[in-house]
Design a protein that fits this description.
With 103 residues, the chain is of the alpha/beta class. The chain has helices spanning 10-19, 31-36, 71-82, and strands at 6-8, 24-27, 42-44, 63-66, 87-90. Helix 2 links the parallel strand 2 (24-27) and strand 3.
């Protein structure tokens, strides 16, 4: 993959959530995927809507991008990083998420 994208493992993200670190978890999947199960603290912004909803993101709070397998979130991470956000891609996506999900 081209572009230098920061990565975080699902286990590392879980640890940050458990410690109560201030994070923006952005799920870039589609609504039907979101409804099937998502990380409780996440916010849904489907990848195609990201450019239109970029003002919903806070530049002062680290972002973790999440999708099903890590490919879409990689693109999303690259996109927001280029815009000056502090973002990381959750490697492996929801397929690798060991924690609970909300429906």
């Amino acid at each position: 993959m081209e572009g230098n994208v920061k990565e975080i493992t699902p286990a590392e993200l879980m640890e940050k959530i458990e410690k109560g670190e201030k994070l923006q978890i952005i799920d870039v999947r589609e609504v039907d995927e979101w409804n099937a199960g998502h990380i409780a603290q996440a916010k849904l912004i489907p990848l195609g809507f990201l450019p239109h909803r970029i003002d919903e993101l806070d530049k002062n709070t680290p972002i973790v991008m999440v999708c099903r397998s890590g490919a879409r979130s990689h693109m999303a991470t690259q996109y927001v990083t280029e815009l000056g956000f502090d973002a990381a891609n959750m490697v492996g996506g929801m397929l690798a998420w060991p924690g609970e999900t909300e429906k």
